[in-house]
């Protein structure tokens, strides 16, 4: 399948667009990655620099002239012009749409996240076949007002229901931690299903990008996501537990993310 990915590109670091292209390619897809913004590194590094992709609109137009796109994956957006271009595409697009909101983690917004950015994602929800926020991002999208550490499963299900009412067809909320277990909710009009995974006590950048890329792969292949999430979590766990850890910043290694049968 041919997948167009809109996401930021980090020159240093295995995440964002770099992770999307690697994981989707490993799973047999042809990927066209167009940066919404280019960073020297992810924001964990000191004194990173960034700039927007020049001639974004012209490049998008050429892609659609050359290729028939089966699915669109949307990640980082923080620019109104780029948002409007993507929204215009989605209004006419007939394939699958995956929305991976990039807003925050562990109960805190990222330093650069703005109200405008949250509004961009809210407006795109109605075009999405699936949205893959972590719990923090899901709370920001729905303006769910509760202390992060006091969130329970019933709260996560309420948040997912709110997202469903905002127009998205399926919701996968990840990174809900309870009793040292990571919980993932798969929610749609007809599905409420929970998945559990052991927590590995280390922060590794890029795991969310890999997770959402694997969800995208399964969706465009026509797999039922409620049957895919456990496979995805197991694959992530097996890769993370094997990779060599270092002091300071750890980044996901991208070599072994083909989903088995």
From TrEMBL:
Taxonomically, the superkingdom here is Bacteria
Q: Which residues form the Pyridoxamine kinase/Phosphomethylpyrimidine kinase domain?
A: 56-241
> A Gene Ontology molecular-function term?
hydroxymethylpyrimidine kinase activity
- The record lists the membrane-crossing segments as none
Q: Name one GO biological process term.
A: thiamine biosynthetic process
Q: Which UniProt keywords apply?
A: Kinase, Thiamine biosynthesis, Transferase
The answer to whether keyword Zinc-finger applies is no
Q: Does the keyword Oxidoreductase apply?
A: no
The UniProt entry, under InterPro entries, shows: PM/HMP-P_kinase-1, Ribokinase-like
**One GO cellular component term:** cytosol
Name any one Pfam family assigned in the record. Answer: Phos_pyr_kin
Protein name stated in the entry: Putative phosphomethylpyrimidine kinase
Lineage here is: Bacteria, Bacillati, Bacillota, Tissierellia, Tissierellales
């Amino acid at each position: 399948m041919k997948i167009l990915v809109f996401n930021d590109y980090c020159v240093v670091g295995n995440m964002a667009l770099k992770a999307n292209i690697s994981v989707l390619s490993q799973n047999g897809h042809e990927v066209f990655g167009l940066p919404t913004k280019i960073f020297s590194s992810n924001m964990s590094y000191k004194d990173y620099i960034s700039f927007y992709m020049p001639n974004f609109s012209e490049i998008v137009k050429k892609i659609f002239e050359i290729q028939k796109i089966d699915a669109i994956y949307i990640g980082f957006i923080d620019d109104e012009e780029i948002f409007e271009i993507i929204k215009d595409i989605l209004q006419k697009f007939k394939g699958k749409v995956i929305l991976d909101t990039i807003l925050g983690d562990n109960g805190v917004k990222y330093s650069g996240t703005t109200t405008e950015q949250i509004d961009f994602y809210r407006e795109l929800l109605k075009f999405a076949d699936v949205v893959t926020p972590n719990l923090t991002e899901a709370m920001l999208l729905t303006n769910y007002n509760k202390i992060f550490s006091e969130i329970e499963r019933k709260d996560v299900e309420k948040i997912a229901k709110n997202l469903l009412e905002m127009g998205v067809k399926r919701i996968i909320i990840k990174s809900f931690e309870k009793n040292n277990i990571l919980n993932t909710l798969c929610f749609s009009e007809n599905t409420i299903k929970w998945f559990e995974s052991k927590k590995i006590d280390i922060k590794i950048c890029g795991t969310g990008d890999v997770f959402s890329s694997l969800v995208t792969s399964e969706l465009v292949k026509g797999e039922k996501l409620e049957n895919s999430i456990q496979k995805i979590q197991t694959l992530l766990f097996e890769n993370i537990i094997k990779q060599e850890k270092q002091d300071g910043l750890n980044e996901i290694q991208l070599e072994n993310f083909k989903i088995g049968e």
